[in-house]
Design a protein that fits this description.
heterodimer; A: alpha+beta; Mth169, Chain: A; 3 strands; 32% helix; B: alpha/beta; Rossmann fold; nine-stranded mixed beta sheet; two-stranded antiparallel sheet; 5 helices
């Protein structure tokens, strides 16, 4: 058994509407100095699988390599 | 001439497509996503909706439905495949079309008629360049993106078939697409021209009682071109 944490984020240069909206909302709330907010996905996956299998799962289904990057960490 | 209209769990425009096709005098039948046989169909349509609840990403799960490997084979044989709205999203996830569809730039679900300019042709549409169509959009993720290399390749090959535009066909300037789509892209085809995906819903405007008949051309064009091909 292994636990993995997967972070899926938009690639550099891909416009992130929820991130930009959060950025503006924070400015409206009076928080100055926020340069950028990026919003992505957090996936927790556990089972009898190794990192290379999890990588394959990310490439196939959990992320879309056309627009997203992913990072896998052992939890 | 028989159209197969694929039904995924969560599809909700399949009846409109079948109605549109039958209204124009052609045959249409539903194809359940668990089926793996497209024999007897001349053209395949992936309709709009929220397949698999749009979980993970729009179209991400539908892409692995059993019927999709058949759709890929059908497309590889050069047979016509049309993806409308969620169907377009599924075609990009299945890599039958390049790029991806992100959340609308303004974060709002948009449901209204839009003007579209014909900038290319494919098996599903070969109207004169510059023709302006009025067809409704109805989506939350229609913000088309692809990388620069893909975009310039598509432009060179004439794969950008439809762009969002003003009433007179002019462009309102960069970034003016209602959903923020790159280069105002509303619909693209593959290099061969047989696979076509678009965000607007042509099946909703085939009868003037629902606001026009600009959607008819998509279904009549593919029938005419198939007939030409076979004769």
């Amino acid at each position: 058994m292994a636990d993995y944490e997967i972070f899926v984020t938009y690639k550099e240069g891909i416009f992130d509407p929820p991130g930009v909206t959060a950025e503006r909302a924070l400015a409206n709330l009076g928080y100055q100095g926020v340069d950028e907010v990026k919003i992505g996905k957090y996936i927790r996956l556990s089972g009898d699988v190794d990192t290379s299998q999890v990588t394959e799962m990310c490439e196939k289904l959990l992320a879309n390599p056309v627009i997203e990057d992913f990072r896998i960490e052992s939890a | 001439m028989r159209f197969g209209v694929v039904v995924f769990p969560g599809s909700n425009c399949e009846q409109d497509v079948v109605h549109a096709v039958r209204l124009l005098g052609f045959e249409a039948d539903y194809v359940w996503h668990q089926d793996s046989d497209l024999d007897g169909f001349d053209a395949v349509v992936l309709p709009g909706g929220f397949s698999y609840g749009d979980y993970i990403r729009t179209g991400a799960v539908a892409r692995f439905s059993p019927v999709m490997s058949e759709v890929v084979r059908f497309a590889e044989k050069g047979r016509p495949v049309l993806g409308i709205c969620n169907g377009f999203q599924i075609l990009t996830e299945a890599r039958l079309l390049p790029g991806a569809l992100l959340r609308n730039r303004g974060l709002k679900f948009i449901c209204r008629p839009v003007h579209l300019r014909v900038d290319g042709s494919c098996s599903w549409l070969d109207l004169p360049m510059g023709t302006v169509l009025k067809i409704p959009i109805n989506h939350n993720e229609g913000n088309y993106v692809c990388d620069e290399a893909v975009l310039s390749q598509m432009r060179e090959n004439g794969q950008v078939v439809l762009r969002y535009c003003e009433k007179d066909g002019s462009s309102a300037g960069a970034g003016s697409a209602p959903n923020g789509a790159l280069d105002d892209i509303a619909g693209i085809c593959n290099e061969r021209g047989n696979v076509f995906g678009l965000m607007p819903h042509p099946e909703r405007v085939v009868d003037p009682i629902t606001g026009g008949n600009d959607g008819q051309a998509f279904f009549t064009t593919v029938v005419r071109r198939l007939a030409e091909f076979e004769s």
